């Protein structure tokens, strides 16, 4: 749908530069779409599997609400090692968490890929700007971990 | 409420949040957080964790279409992300050293003021008068997009890049301090200061908030604030909503988007003032 619409009313790429810019736009768009689609599939599969593993999810009314804690069942997975262990045991919850991690990683990967995209466009200034944004992002992850 | 009932009702509300967020360049946290805490009595930490994930979901879900349709100005986004990520780092450093209470008051006032300005300029189309913009020229920020509602290609010039960078730095500091996506600050900065068309502003803000949110999402994940059973139905709903919303943006009138944005801005401004004054 959007593929067709995008083509309308737009000047045909004439020069090689414009063609390269367009290729990069499509690459970024496809990258985001891929990240989002795979995450959504993981959410769906993980949720179905966890419902299959815990039939009480259909009937138990105590997960949310009066307790106010809002934290259902087991503690939340919050390290990569926990997620990996959960995946090994084929737990639905771990599959869902993997989907969340992929969703979080998608914009970061997008910035990383943009560095190469600007190199491909032979745009030194923007390669530098994007590389700086990427380093600031990585720095915030490192500092966040140290917190 | 059983988990199944919870999943389904959260999914429905999140679809609405995703539509609104993708149209206005916001994360949808203004809908998600109150819904989860007030309606479902979820602990605020898990609500914020889910909201951060939903910001990323709105961003990536809608940006896939906006970038393809050239609604997003990728160059403006990259340049401004420099300021927002530097700001977010500063904010994270300042957190705990400042009285957050008064920040809420200050930003409540700032947002109220931007809402007023946007309301006054609601009929103005961007880039009518030509302003000398040496920075935007050098960074090659000027661009065009195809406006479906107007039925033609709209060429626009970007102005006041340095002011925009300054405002984005502030927006980044606010994100780092308060843990919000701060799309409500980014859109007025692009619309009012840099004179981007409102659709380009919301699409570009939408593109940027994913990066801002991803930077803090790591911290929330490590703290254990992102509960998969809460975040997954929220993120799924928001993703579906964002994809639907991104198909709408082109067809809507710019004035309509401005007006809806003004209403939401006033709402956020009121919430922030209340939070700050109550302490």
Could you characterize the architecture of this molecule?
The complex is a heterodimer of chains A (147) and B (279). By secondary structure, chain A is mainly alpha-helical. Chain A has one domain (18-57, 77-146). Chain A is built from 5 helices and no strands. The radius of gyration of chain A is 21 Å and the shape is elongated. Chain B is mostly helical. Chain B has one domain (3-278). Helix content of chain B is 74%, strand content 4%. Chain B is built from 11 helices and 2 strands. Chain B has a two-stranded antiparallel sheet. In chain B, a hairpin with a 4-residue loop joins strand 1 and strand 2. In chain B, helix 1 runs antiparallel to helix 2. The longest helix of chain B is centred in the last third of the chain and has 26 residues, at 198-223. Chain B is globular. Chain B starts with a helix and ends with a helix. The model of chain B has no long low-confidence stretch (mean pLDDT 86). The interface between A and B is large, with 77 and 70 residues.
């Amino acid at each position: 749908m959007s593929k067709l619409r995008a083509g309308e009313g737009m000047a045909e790429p004439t020069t090689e530069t414009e063609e390269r810019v367009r290729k990069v736009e499509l690459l970024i768009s496809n990258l985001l779409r891929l990240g989002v689609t795979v995450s959504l599939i993981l959410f769906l599969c993980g949720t179905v599997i966890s419902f299959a593993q815990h039939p009480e999810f259909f009937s138990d009314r105590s997960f949310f609400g009066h307790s106010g804690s809002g934290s259902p069942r087991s503690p939340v997975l919050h390290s990569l090692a926990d997620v990996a262990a959960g995946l090994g045991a084929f737990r639905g919850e771990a599959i869902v968490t993997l989907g969340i991690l992929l969703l979080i990683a998608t914009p970061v990967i997008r910035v990383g890929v943009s560095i190469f995209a600007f190199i491909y466009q032979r745009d030194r200034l923007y390669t530098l700007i994007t590389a700086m944004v990427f380093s600031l992002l990585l720095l915030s992850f490192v500092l966040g971990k140290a917190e | 409420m059983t988990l199944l009932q919870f999943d389904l009702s959260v999914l429905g509300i999140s679809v609405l949040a995703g539509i609104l967020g993708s149209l206005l360049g916001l994360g949808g946290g203004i809908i998600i957080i109150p819904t989860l805490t007030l309606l479902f009595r979820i602990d605020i930490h898990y609500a914020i964790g889910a909201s951060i994930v939903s910001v990323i979901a709105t961003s990536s879900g809608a940006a896939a279409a906006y970038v393809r349709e050239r609604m997003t100005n990728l160059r403006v986004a990259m340049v401004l992300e420099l300021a927002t990520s530097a700001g977010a780092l500063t904010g994270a450093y300042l957190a705990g050293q400042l009285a957050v209470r008064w920040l809420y008051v200050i930003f409540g006032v700032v947002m109220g003021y931007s809402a007023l300005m946007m309301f006054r300029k609601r009929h103005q189309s961007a880039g009518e008068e030509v302003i000398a913009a040496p920075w935007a020229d050098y960074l090659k920020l000027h661009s065009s997009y195809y406006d479906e509602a107007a039925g033609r290609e709209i060429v626009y010039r970007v102005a006041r890049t340095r002011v925009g960078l300054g405002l984005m730095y502030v927006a980044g500091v606010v994100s780092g301090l308060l843990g919000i996506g701060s799309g409500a600050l980014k859109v007025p900065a692009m619309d009012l200061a840099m004179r981007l068309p409102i659709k380009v502003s919301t699409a570009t803000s939408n593109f940027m908030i994913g990066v801002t949110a991803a930077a803090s999402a790591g911290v929330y994940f490590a703290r254990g604030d992102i509960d998969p059973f809460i975040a997954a139905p929220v993120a799924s709903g928001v993703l579906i909503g964002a994809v639907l919303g991104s198909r709408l943006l082109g067809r809507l009138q710019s004035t309509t988007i401005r007006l809806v944005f003004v209403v939401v801005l006033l709402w956020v401004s009121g919430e922030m003032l209340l939070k700050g004054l109550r302490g």
